[in-house]
Design goal:
The protein is an all-alpha fold. It has one domain (5-71). It contains three helices and no strands. α1 (5-19) crosses α2 (24-42). The two termini are 25 Å apart.
Length: 73
């Protein structure tokens, strides 16, 4: 099943909202900081993961943009 970017955003919103009892922006910042600690603890490279996530994001934006163009009569 292919997800839309809105579905991805909705999934992230649920996870960020459930992360802690602060506002969503603070939860996002805290989650990212905790992800950095997780990477340190497990030997992962946070910056490589972030760069790959950025590539995925751009790819997903481009995919959705192409889909929208196909839907125009």
């Amino acid at each position: 099943m292919t997800q839309s970017n809105q579905q991805r955003a909705d999934r992230a919103e649920k996870a960020i909202h459930a992360f802690a009892d602060d506002d969503d922006f603070t939860n996002l910042v805290d989650f990212l900081a905790d992800a950095m600690h997780f990477c340190d603890a497990t030997g992962q490279d946070f910056h490589i993961a972030l760069a790959q996530a950025c590539r995925h994001y751009i790819h997903e934006l481009n995919d959705e943009q192409h889909d929208e163009r196909r839907m125009i009569p």
